[in-house]
Write a structure and sequence with these properties.
The chain has one domain (29-112). Helix content is 69%, strand content 5%. It has helices at 17-26, 29-38, 43-66, 70-92, 102-112, and strands at residues 2-4, 95-97. The chain has a two-stranded antiparallel sheet. The relative contact order is 0.20.
């Protein structure tokens, strides 16, 4: 589900919040953790940071478990990369795209933090 955030609140990092949200996904969970710790005010950036962490961990587990199966592994790896690129593009457009289950979790955590 796409929730428009045409003008997300400013980021405490000094970056444009859309750019900060994109950077949350750049190096999988690593940049998600970085932005989760340094962002103090933007729920938009925090949402993308938490979702980045959750999605990257889930995709790593899925790829580890199923990646060695020839046909499934051949499909999962490119699908994971396409999902990651799509999430970065949506974040840069200022949209808070909530993935099923993970998106709700990320939204709840962004409110708490």
């Amino acid at each position: 589900m796409v929730q428009p955030s045409l003008n997300p609140e400013p980021s405490s990092t000094g970056l444009d919040p859309k750019a900060a949200a994109l950077l949350c996904y750049l190096l999988w969970f690593v940049t998600g953790l970085v932005f989760l710790f340094i962002e103090k005010q933007s729920r938009f950036v925090k949402f993308h940071a938490v979702q980045s962490i959750a999605v990257s961990v889930l995709l790593m587990v899925i790829n580890f478990i199923f990646g060695w199966i020839p046909i499934i592994g051949f499909v999962i790896a490119p699908a994971s990369i396409l999902l990651w690129i799509a999430l970065m593009a949506l974040a840069y457009q200022g949209k808070a795209y909530k993935l099923p289950i993970i998106g709700d979790f990320a939204e709840q955590q962004a409110r708490k933090l």
